[in-house]
Amino acid sequence: MPHSSDSSDSCSFSQTSSSSKQESSDDMRKVQRREKNRIAAQKSRQRQTQKADTLHLLGIAVGFLLPPVLVPNSEDKEKLAHHIGIMFFMTAGVATALFLLVIFVFQEKPPYPPSRAQAMIHTTAPEEYSYTKSIVRLFRNVNFDLLIVSYGLNTGCFYALSTMLNRMVVINYPGEEQNAGRIGLTIVVAGMVGALITGLWLDRTKTYKQTTLLVYIMSFVGMVIYTFTLNLGYLWVVFVTAGVLGFFMTGYLPLGFELAAELTYPESEGTSSGLLNVSAQIFGIIFTISQGQIIDHFGTEAGNIFLCVFLFIGTIITGFIKPDLRRQRANLDNEQTRLQGNKSQIMNYGVCALTPSFPTPAQ
């Protein structure tokens, strides 16, 4: 009879152990599925951000290419007004279509947050969020203040260069209006490639400050090279130098937004990127008007040197930005907490499986 009891208890323990292992295996599979979904969400966010930046630059490229084709160089003011009107109506049509898409198609936010940092932001109650207080907190962030100025200087130079490009090319190469548009297209397409490469690089290295500073330095170098090769008389040289300039200067635009999101977490990325755009528009207006006046009085080379000076200043300012990557730190802290929770869960299952309660042998 004792043997029968031992056999029954052994069978019971075997079943309990098997059940515990099965539960542990099921929970591990659930953890793995959640991990895969989390990684997929983060990768999806990065891919969608890169795609949006690329399409934004593609729109700028089309804006360079189409106006010289739609509006011919003509002394007839009525003909000129007719073609400009067609171009404006086309622009209005595209803007109206985008407006309708935003109203009826775009979602306010994705069904699942793309990162743990975003999940923490979404848990804040709406009544606790103040847009004014958020802006005040952003301006108290010294690193973000430096980024606002440096981003505004770089992007403002890009806006001024884009606006004055046709004029500068025609002054040095009369009758080359269409090639001026193609040079602008070259700048933006090269920038699309630059934005894609820097995005992939950031995804692998997370070196936001170092990458931003390097791209800024190369933007300055590219602007210097472009300045002193524009009037050499070789149009193909202008295409090459403009492409190099665009690769770094246009490729810098999405880098600024990503660095701002890192420096200002947990503030809304929409607020920080909006302030960067305001800075870019202000500097763009100032630089465009100023460069136009300089070109009128001193020529294209002096106008471009004017931009080089401010790119150099922006490079120095960027060097003073401290890499306080708050979003990365928040994601890392949450990841460590999650892993510790999983370890604790697995260890608990192990204890249950390895410390069974043996029956007392019958005397």
TrEMBL record:
Compartments reported by the entry: Cell membrane
MF terms (GO), sorted A to Z: DNA-binding transcription factor activity; heme binding; heme transmembrane transporter activity
Region of interest (Disordered), residue spans: 1-50
Keyword Magnesium (UniProt): no
GO biological process, one term: heme export
UniProt KW keywords: Cell membrane, Membrane, Transmembrane, Transmembrane helix, Transport
Membrane topology category: Multi-pass membrane protein
Pfam families cross-referenced by the UniProt entry: MFS_1
Domain BZIP, chain residue ranges per copy: 33-47
InterPro entries given in the database record: bZIP (IPR004827), bZIP_sf (IPR046347), FLVCR1-2_SLC49-like (IPR049680), MFS (IPR011701), MFS_trans_sf (IPR036259)
Designated name of the protein: Choline/ethanolamine transporter FLVCR2-like isoform X7
Organism: Pogona vitticeps (central bearded dragon)
